[in-house]
Amino acid sequence: MSMNKRTTILTSVIVSSLLLSGCGLLGGKTREKIDPPQTVTYTDDGKITGKTVGEKSVEKEATKDSVMTELYLIDKNGYVVAQTLPLPKTESVAKQALTYLVEGGPVTEMLPNGFAAVLPVDTEVDVDIKDKTAIVNFSNEFKNYKPENELKILQAVTWTLTQFDTIEKVKFKLNGHDLNEMPVAGTPIGKEVSRANGINIDTSEAVDITNTKSATVYFLANEEGENYYVPVTRRVEDNSIAGIVAELVRGPSYSSALLNDFSPDVKLLDDPKVENKKVTLNFNESIFGSFEDKKIISEHLLNSLVLSLTEQEGIESVEVMVNGKAELVKENGEKLTEPVTRPQKVNTGSY
């Protein structure tokens, strides 16, 4: 849905928006290494110095004894969404991350407003990593979920684990036995799953599965004045860079609660150019949207664009041009003179 139709929310979005740094959303790698645990940068008094795509500072939450970790939780609208929270340092960060997905577990006091844990109460997990595959063994309590939550659990576990450098795929087990399908509704999972299986799959339009491909794009959501980014996987005919831009312009389904800052008149004037893991995009002036008079580019538009494109293999940064000119102005008045990189962590907040 167009942000122009959500003027009340737009005001709070702009006022509270996290301003991008000159070199990117935050900078850094997409994944986090498991051994040793990778932490954020701290000042001498133990406070984190960086901020990510989320709307709040984490200075009061992160300490020298914590590691910022993405937990894929369920929001009030039923979307599976990353929330980055400071978890205690441990050598078993993959297992710990899943432990924090258990309802009634240690995540309870940390849950952001409107979010819930995804794994059934008292579920226990073990994680063994071999050849970039996380073999996850769940206790019998894992079966105690509602059928309508099955895909959400599958996606939450997979995307939480694949944030780490050493994990690309996930294999599910129950009490030591391989699972080729989920235990309640029977969703097929085969030998293993990955991010290629998608997340928050948009089925609002009937498509020919055999002649389409998957593409994951990020839209904006709002909970009590706090903004966060939701990944949505669609079946599209064109999942190239230009095709992904087209999906962002098309926006979220009208039946969803998601928001979008792209004007429907936004167009690419040239084919995207990829060089040294950087993609350069040349847009028409419609990219400015409601800021066209001031030639300012929306922070949330830029965030959605960078998050969506850096999901693609081989893309690490995005350079935005308008009518062939690269020096754009951000909402804080600073010039955007360098390519924008993906943040280390998505939706970081102090809760």
TrEMBL record:
Pfam family, one: Germane
Record-annotated GerMN domain positions: 94-183, 241-331
Domain of life: Bacteria
Protein name (record): Germination protein M
